[in-house]
Amino acid sequence: MNYFWIVFLCCVFDLVPADDNYVTCGSVIKLMNLKEGVRLHSHDVKYGSGSGQQSVTGMTEADDVNSHWQILAPLKKHCRRGEAIKCGDQIRLKHLTTGCYLHSHLFNAPLSRGNQEISCFGKNDEGDTGDHWALSCETGEWLRGEPVSLKHVDTGKYLATSGQQYGRPISGQKEIVGISSITKAALWKTAEGVYMVLSDDDN
């Protein structure tokens, strides 16, 4: 499906209901942090320190198009569009508007001490294993609205909020980091999105 068409659907319909309650491969979602209430966000603004890659933040506004992420399989792997993501699966999250992938590495977070930088890196399948995230959940399969955590495969850190807030040029947006253990700051749930389902031909 064309990315611009997906963005249009996300903006117009905000949430497309389906026959089941699973989060699936190919779906375009917004992820909301349970502690801060912000949505995982990115934009064409680079970090001024660390890796210098595209920044990833937490955004309070629900309707910002730059908070859409598409769920994809790891590099050199494939998942069927509409197939439920299982607890323990590895995934990539592609930022829909800029085309890069949610990423981490051993750079320090820009604001908070002792945390790891989260960035957006690579385009058009030009990434690396730093784009791989393992889904931690307790329901067998990823259910919409259920708390989950995302563990960075290469470094073992969990995607989280730090409680720190940026100044200009992204004033008011929250710092997103990698942390060592699962706390409420590392719990996320799906919010708005376009959820893919298996077609009859796939069953």
From TrEMBL:
Residue ranges constituting the MIR domain according to the UniProt record: 20-74, 82-138, 139-193
Database matches in Gene3D superfamilies: 2.80.10.50
A Pfam family per the record: MIR
Keyword vocabulary terms for this entry: Repeat, Signal
Signal peptide: 1-18
Entry protein name: MIR domain-containing protein
Lineage, uppermost ranks: Eukaryota, Metazoa, Ecdysozoa, Nematoda, Chromadorea
